[in-house]
């Protein structure tokens, strides 16, 4: 698997922000019992079956605190891991291991939870033409990590940010005065290489979006029957996407509609963490 971001500088800045949140001045607990540097190691143990994701971020958290820290990984992002499995060993200054533990685990557990949940949803779509996408419903300052986790879990990324693509939602349409007007304005403003996606809530809006020449039509919070009718109405003249409170529990209902894509905010805002733990911290015995 590739690293979570191509721009590692951005990743490092976000990791530093998380560390500063947890260590604004000093780690008083660690400093109280460790007055000087002492070498040691600790084990990363899996406590729940799932898909591991975020190992690069986990490792960088410790290395930002001390570049001398050594992280020996026994797995890679995307691997399916089992309860009780030894995933990694971290060696270095015990003060660094203690101070970085929570932040490193927060990233790794969150990203692994998203990858695990995404993989479960992707499995439910096997055998269909419908592909799974995420949304912008992400944790502030965690988007690059959470969207990477969706990819590791087998899903796809919708637009990463507001600069990444045109999606005309209900309020954009209301501000423009209608679907046709919104699409025309977008065509006039945007480069010809950009696709225009329109969110519709009923069949009348869907018809307008088709006639206006939308490239992608999102069927938002529509019934399964109306989605079927909308796909027939569109008839291949635009890509189709459905969205709106779609979770692991109800996504199978979407399969019979024939949509090209299904986007689910639940992948990032409702995935439970994967239970992981740093255990068995011991000083390194010099021989």
Highest-level CATH class of the largest domain: Alpha Beta
Look up the CATH topology of the largest domain: TIM Barrel
Q: List SSEs in N-to-C order.
A: HHEEHEEEHEHEHHEHEHEEHE
Supply the CATH superfamily name of the largest domain. Aldolase class I
Number of helices: 10
Radius of gyration: 23 Å
What sort of overall outline do the alpha carbons produce when their principal axes are compared?
elongated
The low-confidence parts are none
Distance between the termini: 38 Å
- Tally of individual domains: 2
CATH architecture of the largest domain: Alpha-Beta Barrel
For the residues shown, what is the average pLDDT? Answer: 94
Level of helix content? 40-55%
Report on this model:
The chain has 2 domains: about 10-120 and about 270-285, Aldehyde Oxidoreductase, domain 3, CATH 3.90.1170.20; about 120-270, Aldolase class I (TIM Barrel, Alpha-Beta Barrel), CATH 3.20.20.70. Helix content is about 40%, strand content about 20%. The chain has 10 helices and 12 strands. The protein has helices spanning about 10-20, 30-35, 55-65, 95-125, 145-150, 170-175, 180-190, 205-210, 225-235, 265-270, and strands at about 40-45, 50, 70-75, 80, 85-95, 130-135, 165-170, 195-200, 215-220, 240-245, 260-265, 275-285. It has a 6-stranded parallel beta sheet with strand order 6-11-10-9-8-7. Strands 3-5-1-12 form a 4-stranded antiparallel beta sheet, with helices on one face. α8 (about 205-210) links the parallel β8 and β9 (about 215-220). The longest helix has about 30 residues, at about 95-125. The protein is elongated. The model has no long low-confidence stretch (mean pLDDT about 95).
């Amino acid at each position: 698997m590739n690293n979570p971001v191509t721009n590692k500088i951005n990743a490092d800045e976000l990791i530093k922000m998380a560390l500063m949140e947890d260590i604004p001045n000093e780690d008083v607990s660690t400093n109280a019992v460790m007055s000087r540097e002492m070498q040691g190691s600790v084990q990363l143990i899996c406590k729940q079956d799932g898909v591991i994701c975020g190992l690069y971020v986990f490792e960088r958290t410790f290395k930002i605190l001390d570049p001398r820290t050594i992280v020996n990984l026994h797995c890679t992002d995307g691997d399916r891991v089992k309860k009780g499995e030894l995933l990694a060993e971290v060696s270095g200054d015990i003060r660094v291991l203690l101070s970085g533990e929570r932040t490193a685990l927060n990233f790794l557990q969150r990203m692994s939870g998203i990858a695990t949940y995404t993989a479960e949803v992707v499995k439910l779509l096997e055998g269909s033409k419908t592909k799974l996408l995420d949304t912008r419903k992400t944790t502030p300052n965690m988007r690059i990590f959470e969207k990477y986790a969706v990819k590791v879990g087998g899903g796809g990324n919708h637009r990463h940010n507001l600069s990444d693509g045109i999606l005309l939602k209900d309020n954009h349409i209301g501000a423009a005065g209608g679907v046709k007007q919104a699409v025309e304005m977008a065509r006039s403003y945007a480069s010809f290489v950009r696709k225009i996606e329109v969110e519709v809530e009923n069949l009348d809006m869907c018809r307008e979006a088709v006639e206006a020449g939308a490239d992608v039509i999102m069927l938002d919070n529509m019934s399964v029957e109306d989605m079927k009718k909308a796909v027939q109405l569109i008839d291949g003249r635009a890509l189709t996407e459905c969205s709106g409170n779609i979770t692991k529990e109800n996504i199978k209902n979407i399969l019979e509609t024939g949509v090209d894509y299904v986007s689910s905010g639940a992948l990032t805002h409702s995935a439970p963490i994967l239970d992981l733990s740093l255990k068995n911290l011991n000083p390194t015995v010099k021989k």
